[in-house]
Amino acid sequence: MNADALFSISNLCFSYEQKEVLKIERLRLKAGQVTLLVGANGSGKTTLLKLINGLLKPDSGQINFRGEAISGKGYQAMRSHSVLVHQDPFLFSGSVFQNVAYGLKIRKEAAPVIRRKVHEKLDLLGLAGFEHRKANKLSGGEKQRVAIARALVLEPEVLLFDEPAANVDHKSLELIEALILQLQENGTTVIVSTHNRSFAYRLGSELLILKRGRIIPGGVNIFRGFVEKQDEIFTYFMSGKNLLHCPAQKGDFNTAVLPLNDVILSEREIKSSAQNNFRGTVTHIKREGHLYRVELACPLSVQAHITEYSLNKLQVETGKEFYLAFKASAVKLY
């Protein structure tokens, strides 16, 4: 298992009423980053979250947490390390304060500590002054934020969010996005399911695409940064010390997204109309179905999908240098 992999999944199968809904051959989820599970309704996202959280047990296969297999009483222990915020969270009929404080009271924490922690998390989620409001009288977005506050006060090692962007108002969505980015900066492990790709691109360190219960090849490079300048031809996006040529469009963007399939690798300098050209060193190679994901440092970390034929023809191996290029039109800004 990779040293930074918090969860390691192998040969995982799960069925509902004899219908297979999830089959994952191999998956590693890194510690301290935001991972987005992207897929349509019914793709298996929620089931995978419940398996990771220990709410469900697989029919076969194995889930490791910190290198240890989860089995028997390990499922209950897993729930002490992680909290799942459901898409339609259940709230008690009492006050907002009572809902958020519930887990802390179960832990028998002191009343002053409970008050401090609850107020901190309510403030963080824009719910200051909501303490005495009835939870069942709140809007959908407010209920979602209360459920998130209830999870945060427990300070779990892993936070799981099931479709947090679904059916919430604009204010709630902005607050939830800001929170997830803050958690990422703090090094908290966050796993989020969503069908909203724009939401995923704005937040994720890594995207996993689920289709009919399987992880499929795909994915994108996600570059964080800012717009350096704009003209009538290009938007110039700065990520680290690298300047990316992107399509001309007005806006205050902080994320550039590049599909892996749009990156070209070559042993020689690439002479083409592509405006983005770099030279990088291969740092990692991973097989994904019939394709290989190749990661290069240039010093920007860029990933590309190539076929086995290209892998062999180019003799791709870690430590070897390549030229890489991609068109400005391939980059989308968010």
Provide the gyration radius in Å: 22 Å
User: At CATH's second level, what is the architecture of the largest domain?
Assistant: 3-Layer(aba) Sandwich
Give the N-to-C terminal Cα separation.
34 Å
Name the CATH homologous superfamily of the largest domain.
P-loop containing nucleotide triphosphate hydrolases
Query: Average pLDDT across residues?
Result: 93
The total beta strand count reads 21
**Can you tell me the overall shape?**
globular
Q: How would you classify the helix and strand content by structural class?
A: alpha+beta
The total count of helices amounts to 8
Q: Return the CATH topology of the largest domain.
A: Rossmann fold
- CATH class descriptor name of the largest domain: Alpha Beta
Oligomer: single chain
The overall number of domains is: 2
Kindly describe this structure.
The structure is a single chain. The protein has 334 residues and is of the alpha+beta class. The chain has two domains: 212 residues, P-loop containing nucleotide triphosphate hydrolases (Rossmann fold, 3-Layer(aba) Sandwich), CATH 3.40.50.300; 111 residues, Beta Barrel (OB fold (Dihydrolipoamide Acetyltransferase, E2P)). The chain contains eight helices and 21 strands. A hairpin with a 2-residue loop joins strand 1 and strand 2. Helix 5 packs parallel to helix 6. The model has no long low-confidence stretch (mean pLDDT 93).
